[in-house]
Amino acid sequence: MTEHFMEFFKTSGFWQHCYGSIDFLNYLKLQRHIEANGNGKEPPFKLGVVSNFDPRLDVLLRNMKINHYFDFVLNSYDVGFMKPTKEIFATAMKASELKDLKPSECLHIGATPATDYFGARNAGWYGLLVHEKSAEDLTRKYGQLVDDNHVFSSLFDIHKKISNDYMKW
To answer: Please, what are the domains in the chain?
Structure first.
């Protein structure tokens, strides 16, 4: 029974795309192509997944038909570090294979304040949260440690802000 459940857990039947995720990923893919001038130059940024998941993550992303958007996928089980440790974020920077990449040039979008947002920020990255609670609710819980401008209700909202150049770091 457990094995059957574990197999089902990596199928698309157990998961759904976040609101706005496919449009946002398509937008980022197009931006990479435009910024690389469409001439085969190295893309100006890489997209990756950094997750406290297990090795089934690659299969799950493939089953969800989104694996092709990402240049690398790191799961904490294989990497040996979990978010919020700085090591997993440093490993992501190496996996990007971008030369002279600095933490201050990296962005992590996640759903959990303690592991995603604070982990990224402590590693020197920018961090954004997609969270069901409002920025005000998170401020009540975490104080001023969570910037109101870094909390969004969906990836659609992040896409809107980035594509309209309204993003404030």
So the answer is: 2-163 (3.40.50.1000)
